[in-house]
Amino acid sequence: MADQQYDLVVIGSGPGGYVCAIRAAQLGMKVACVEKRETLGGTCLNVGCIPSKALLQSSEKFDEVRHHLAAHGVKVTGVELDLKGMLGHKDKVVTDNTNGVAFLFKKHKIDWVKGAGRVAGAGKVAVALNGGGERTLATKNVVVATGSDVAPLPGVAIDEKKIVSSTGALALAEVPKRFVVIGGGYIGLEMGSVWRRLGAEVTVVEFLDRILPGMDAEISKHMQRVMSKQGFAFKLGTKVAAAKTTNRGVLLTLEPAKGGAGEELVADVVLVAIGRRPYTESLGLKEAGVALDDKGRIKTDAHFASNVPGIYAIGDVIAGPMLAHKAEDEGVAVAEIIAGQAGHVNYDAIPGVVYTWPEAASVGKTEEQLKTEDVAYKSGKFPFTANGRARAMNTTDGFVKILADKTTDRILGVHIIGPDAGHLIAEVVLAMEFGASAEDIARTCHAHPTLSEAVKEAALAVDGRPLHI
């Protein structure tokens, strides 16, 4: 039996889904959000972005006390790791954030339907309720925001004990002596950083010939050099053919990606972090006639609409980077479009951040992309070794690089590796949204002494006139 009529039903309560539901409610719609977890927030808040950043922050503090405070004249002895306490802090952060979303749902009178949703036909969403039974929601519009799941690796079976996904890597009961990360992307390097700081020997195995393959090559090269100094070992151009749990640990069979003699590697814990895949199964999409691409993503037009009227999709289930903030912006945009407004997302100005230390952040085109596209550009670079605030912080690794159109000076891409890169990138994302030139940033007054002055200096360097190098 169908319920009351909703204007919008959102399937999934991750950053894209819950933000979409909130914005739609702000616009006066009657909204329901279907979520099968017992808490809201999706992968990001529960087992992704938020808990991983909590552990990164805590492990940074532990590492700083042990290895870096002495340079500031602070001597500390008897430092001990309380892993249970660190994990407890992480869990509290997750609880506070998910409770915050639940509060926002109540504030905006959004109905949270607890269960697994699927499209059951025109204007209908069927929900297999967590408490048993099924409920059908009648709705004018549906937004699919079910996110993504861990991509499997053939020959490597995840058990979340010895061979873990990012979820299991957030909750290890003890620090492993030997920690192997399969995949040199964002997630692998971040979780590797956590356990390296806490004492694990970390080896990163990457199929391609460099880490962070989606970022500017100069950033990738510098990051590998810095992380090697931190104690990371890297096996690049290497694939994992098999993994077997033995009484000695996990035995990995490695092979050169381009062929050749293999080798074995033993680990106490192995993290599989080769990427994620869209979660579009069991949603009734094929039965409803919704078109998917060859990667299992929902095909959408510029307004996030599928080929079936009234069914929209956002976030990891459609094309584009699998980033929480990208999904959030899409959630706002699609809610406004459904309300008859002009929602829009500028995909040329979506930043990506790696929360290692130093951080790496990027927006827009890389040098490699500009060369491939035969775009004439200018480059300006400024190192943190020449930044007064970075020297005071004793964190001088890295640089800011700005790429601008050779003729118009319009900013095409910015790449930062260094302290607080994730915060520094926001300035240039805003600049790119307004179509700014490197000269615009160069002539903007930046407070002294701040890390952001490195961004200004890089902008000055585009025109060959940096002041402090």
Explain the overall architecture.
The model has no long low-confidence stretch (mean pLDDT 97). This protein has 13 helices and 21 strands. It has 469 residues and is an alpha/beta fold. The strands form five sheets. It has a five-stranded mixed β-barrel with strand order 1-2-3-4-5. A hairpin with a 2-residue loop joins strand 3 (111-121) and strand 4. The chain has helices spanning 15-26, 42-47, 49-67, 83-107, 166-169, 186-197, 217-229, 324-338, 367-372, 388-393, 421-433, 438-442, 453-462, and strands at 2-11, 31-35, 111-121, 124-129, 134-144, 148-150, 163-164, 178-182, 201-206, 233-236, 238-246, 249-256, 263-267, 269-272, 276-278, 311-313, 352-354, 359-364, 377-383, 399-405, 411-418. Helix 1 packs parallel to helix 8 (324-338), helix 3 (49-67) runs antiparallel to helix 4 (83-107) and helix 3 packs parallel to helix 6 (186-197). The chain has three domains: 2-149 and 277-345, FAD/NAD(P)-binding domain (3-Layer(bba) Sandwich); 163-274, FAD/NAD(P)-binding domain (3-Layer(bba) Sandwich), CATH 3.50.50; 349-462, FAD/NAD-linked reductase, C-terminal dimerisation domain (Enolase-like, domain 1, 2-Layer Sandwich), CATH 3.30.390.30.
